Amino acid sequence: MTRGIAAQRGARFAMLMLAVAALCAGCGREEPKPAAVTQPAAAAAIVRAPRPTATLAPNASCVTTACHATFAGAEFIHGPIASKACDACHAADTGGHVYPLKRPGNDTCTFCHNIIGRHEHQHKVVQQQGCIACHDPHVSRTKFLIKADSIQQLCGKCHDVPLKKFAHEPFAAGQCTLCHEPHESDVKRLLRGGSGSEHCLMCHTDMKKRMADTKHVHDPVKKDCLQCHSPHATDFPRELKASTEVTCLACHDDVKKQIAQAKVKHSAVHDGASCANCHDPHLSNGEHLLKGRMDNVCAACHVKPIRAADGRTIAAVAPSLLGKNLHGPIRAGDCSACHQAHGSENGSLLRQPFPESFYAPFDVQTYALCFTCHEKDLVLKQQTTTLTNFRDGSRNLHYVHVHQSEKGRTCKACHEIHGSDLPNHMANSVPFEGSTWAMPIRYERRSDGGRCSPGCHQSQTYSRSATTRPAGGGQQ
User: Fold this and answer.
1) Model-level pTM?
2) 460: Cβ–Cβ under 8 A, 6 or more apart, which residues?
3) Can you give the residue ranges of every domain in the chain?
């Protein structure tokens, strides 16, 4: 009986030793694939071998179902691992199952991957923490063996750039490496494609083509788009660093001062797209980066009556621009000859004083705007044969109408300021003082003078060749 028990114990011990030997042998060679089983795969637990203490056989594989099993099934596997060439990076076992790297630090990676040391600016994490700060040297679930589910997650571990209301499309899509080199670059911030605007034009090829074909290009567009735009995300449309008005005035101090001091504001400066209502922020064939010829830009809004902030109705200007006889600045398309687009001390955004009423006591300063182009003597001299054709003989009829101490007729009493179908941009009718009545002028041009019948008054005529004024004619 005793002898039988001893035999049984010896058999059990032998079986146990065989099992241990078989388990350890798993680190020495790749096991054959197990036969198909009927139960779910999840139910079969992986039996992991204990860390070996003895040196493995020369042809032993590191990747088995019991050792480093996850390496075999990973989505992305480092080439040496996939080739079962662990010794490409690791030296022989130094004891205790320790396989040191053959080369120190990044030298292990750069022995095969020539990615650093060639350009001026290196990614600090590569220099300070090494390649394995971002990459797994063996396997990963993400391309390039990165230690995250995406490039965006990986970069976000160090670079905390919040996603705001408006985001640059590559940034919103998590495509950091579309703009940045991950390892090194000759450009600061590890940018691809060059510095400043050169980098942005790498993708914005339409802008690059327009720059080559356009007369005027905004300096920031030529130098550095980041003067105005954020490359990642902002709370302002078009990834601007601030509102359009604030962005523009950050550089244009003279305009900023003019707007701040102006008594009469131009709503286009503040409303809607602000400065971009009239200007193209990037480039234009028009002066001052206007979106077109100045008169066309202005007419885009003033084609219809506009309700001003103070309750006034600003009459439509555009219809008068279709006339045959246009005021000189209008004919040249230069509204700024008379108006200050950003703000003014004078009504209607005029550059100089100009009477707003039908009647005005004469003062030469009242007509300062007109006298920036026209001779003052036009209303200062009673007699002339050269200053104007509006004369009866040598009697200056501009003087007669305007040079009055109380009810001097202002320019707008007879003229359409912008233009009309009549010669000398004479008006067909004008708003009479203090009323909504459009008083007819009934102007008629004649070869040697003219005739008009304003309102309810009798007709008045004038002749430049007259030596004496006919009775009842040529009176004010």
Assistant:
1) 0.77
2) 451, 452, 453, 473, 474, 475
3) 56-160, 163-241, 266-351, 364-463
